[in-house]
Amino acid sequence: MLNLVLLEPEIPANTGNIGRTCVVTGTRLHLIRPLGFSLDDRALARAGLGYWPNLDVRLYEGWEGFLAANGLSPAAPEPRLHLLTKKARCLYTEARYRDGDFIVLGKESAGLPEELLARYAACCERIPMLEDRASLANRDDWKHPAGEDTEHAALRAQDICGNFIDPNDYRISALNLSNAAAVALYEALRQTGFTG
């Protein structure tokens, strides 16, 4: 079984999409608090996450708790970890995935903390993407008109896919979290002989 780990996810729709992907692939989902949303029954029902009871999901209070609960040594990089970051040199397709590995993604607004990237540098992988100027050709459409209300200004802090952008130069930060998770997970499943 493969494992997807979300460190401090902020957007419930992304976690919901990732949870659905985990259900249909038999992947275990690990959520490390704090979460930017509630997982109580009422919130799950309101979000239409009827499949949630079928999801193998584990919750942790922090990174160290996650490591301890899964028998991962906090003292040294673990080959069982795959930290997705746009700051890595190694491509996710160059990594070797094995059954039981953990694919780790950070929160939508900031990614994984620099401390973790430095600590697990040998485990960092990236998904190749076009440069921002090539992928966001409509950046001028995102300029804030004079007198725009704050509600609409907040919406412009994200692109159409929910990616956070820099309001000073309108850059995309990276793939949407659920897309990045699916891309890496399906490569790991391909390498491990998933028959689904």
TrEMBL record:
<keyword id="KW-0819">tRNA processing</keyword>
<feature type="binding site">
    <location>
        <position position="135"/>
    </location>
    <ligand>
        <name>S-adenosyl-L-methionine</name>
    </ligand>
</feature>
<dbReference type="InterPro" id="IPR016914">
    <property type="entry name" value="TrmL"/>
</dbReference>
<feature type="binding site">
    <location>
        <position position="84"/>
    </location>
    <ligand>
        <name>S-adenosyl-L-methionine</name>
    </ligand>
</feature>
<keyword id="KW-0808">Transferase</keyword>
<protein>
    <recommendedName>
        <fullName>Putative tRNA (cytidine(34)-2'-O)-methyltransferase</fullName>
        <ecNumber>2.1.1.207</ecNumber>
    </recommendedName>
</protein>
<dbReference type="GO" id="GO:0003723">
    <property type="term" value="F:RNA binding"/>
</dbReference>
<comment type="similarity">
    <text>Belongs to the class IV-like SAM-binding methyltransferase superfamily. RNA methyltransferase TrmH family. TrmL subfamily.</text>
</comment>
<keyword id="KW-0489">Methyltransferase</keyword>
<dbReference type="InterPro" id="IPR029026">
    <property type="entry name" value="tRNA_m1G_MTases_N"/>
</dbReference>
<keyword id="KW-0963">Cytoplasm</keyword>
<keyword id="KW-0949">S-adenosyl-L-methionine</keyword>
<dbReference type="GO" id="GO:0141102">
    <property type="term" value="F:tRNA (5-carboxymethylaminomethyluridine(34)-2'-O)-methyltransferase activity"/>
</dbReference>
<feature type="binding site">
    <location>
        <position position="127"/>
    </location>
    <ligand>
        <name>S-adenosyl-L-methionine</name>
    </ligand>
</feature>
<feature type="domain" description="tRNA/rRNA methyltransferase SpoU type">
    <location>
        <begin position="2"/>
        <end position="136"/>
    </location>
</feature>
<feature type="binding site">
    <location>
        <position position="106"/>
    </location>
    <ligand>
        <name>S-adenosyl-L-methionine</name>
    </ligand>
</feature>
<dbReference type="GO" id="GO:0002130">
    <property type="term" value="P:wobble position ribose methylation"/>
</dbReference>
<dbReference type="Pfam" id="PF00588">
    <property type="entry name" value="SpoU_methylase"/>
</dbReference>
<dbReference type="GO" id="GO:0141098">
    <property type="term" value="F:tRNA (cytidine(34)-2'-O)-methyltransferase activity"/>
</dbReference>
<dbReference type="InterPro" id="IPR029028">
    <property type="entry name" value="Alpha/beta_knot_MTases"/>
</dbReference>
<dbReference type="InterPro" id="IPR001537">
    <property type="entry name" value="SpoU_MeTrfase"/>
</dbReference>
<comment type="function">
    <text>Could methylate the ribose at the nucleotide 34 wobble position in tRNA.</text>
</comment>
<dbReference type="GO" id="GO:0005737">
    <property type="term" value="C:cytoplasm"/>
</dbReference>
